[in-house]
Here is the input.
Amino acid sequence: MYEPDAAAVAFLLGSEGQGWLATAERLPLTAASRLSDLAKLRVGLPANLAAAVLEQASLRRRATAKFSRAAQMLFSDAALQQATSEVVGQHRASRFAGLRVADLTCGIGGDSLGIGAQAAILYACDLDHTRLRLARHNLAAYGLAARLIQADALRLPLKLAGLDAIFADPGRRSGARRIFVPSDYNPPLATLLSTYRGVAMGLKVAPGIDYEQLAWVDEVEIVSLNGEVKEAVLWTGGLATTGVRRRATTLTASPNLCLQTSVSFTDADAPPDCPVGPVGRYLYEPDGAIIRAGLVRHYAHQHGLWQLEPLIAYLSGDHLLVGVRAFYVEEAAPYSLKRLTARLRELHVGVAEIKKRGLDIDPDDLRKRLKLSGPHSRTIILIRVGNQPMMYICVEEKAAAEGSAGILP
Here is the structure.
C-alpha cells in the first residue's frame, strides 16, 4: 500500500514534481500499462521518484470520484481508501459552523476540507509530519488553511477549554485488513471519550458498527450517497440533535460532485409502529441508510407502508411513493424454480435483477439456472415470509426512485 515518504513529498510539492505529475496524467495509467508508464517516467527521473509520480497520478485519477479538485491534491493509498467523498464531508461539516474545532486525525486533510470551510478555527492534527505537509497542500487546493499541529491525537498541546468540538476518523485498517471492533481502532473510541470528556465530538466510524452498545453516544447518523451507504458518525454533546437518537441522511450528487438533494429522517419523525401484511401493489427497498440506522419501521409508519415480515427490510404499499426504490408487483407466489423459469419464459425476460432476503439462494447461480432469453427485463424479489419462501416478479418504477420523497398524485 503506497505511502509517500518525506523525500517523495518534498519532490512532488516542488515545481519539478508538479511538472512531472502533469506529464504522468497524460499516460494511460492502467494496470496493463503500468510498466510502460513507469519506463517513460524513468527516462528523466530516478526509480524512486518515477514510482512516486506514477503512484500519485494513479491516485489522483481514482480520487476524482471523491474530490472535485483531485487533480491538484496529493494522496496516500490508505488515506484515499478511508476518505469519504467531499459531498459527504461538506454535509457533515455543517455541524461545526462557527466553532473552534480540532481534527484529531487529519491525515492528508480529506475531512479537514469540509470542516475548514465551516469552522471559525480549525486545528488540523496528526503525528506524522509528512501527512501534515500533504494536508496543508490539499487545503490550499481549496483555498483553505488550518493551524497545523504535529501531535498524538490523545496528547494535543491545546487547552480543551479553547475547543468547542473535536472530530476524529480513527484508523480502521491494519495493513490490508479492515478493523470492525471499536476497541481496536487507532485511537480506540473509549480512549477518545475519556480523553476529551466534556467536549462535543463527531466520530466517523464504519457503518456496520454496533452503536447500540455505545450508551455514551447522543446521536448516530448513517449517511448514504447516491444510494450507497458511506459512513456512520457518532455525535455527542452540542453537536447532537436534541431528541434524536438515530438519523439516516440520504444525499445525491452529480458526477462532478455537486450536491443535488439532501434528505434526513430520524427516530423522532415517526414512531416505530407499522403493520405486517401480505404484499400490496408495490414493494419498496428503503435506502441503506434507513436500514442501517434501524429506521425501517419508523419510515413505514411515516409513509403508510407495511412489512411483509418483521425482520425483513422490504416494505409494501398500494400507493406509489417516490424518492425510494419502488417495484410494481406483477405476480406473487410461493417460490418454485420450475414455476419461475416457466413464467419468465412466457414473459420473454432476458435480463433479470435478482434480490433476496432471508433465503439461502445465490442470485448468480439462480440466474444461470433460469436460462433467460428475450427482450424484456424484470426484477425478481425472493423473501422468506414466515416459513414460506415467496417470489415476486416486479417491474421497477424508475421515475419514482429519481423523484423527491413523497406520494405521487
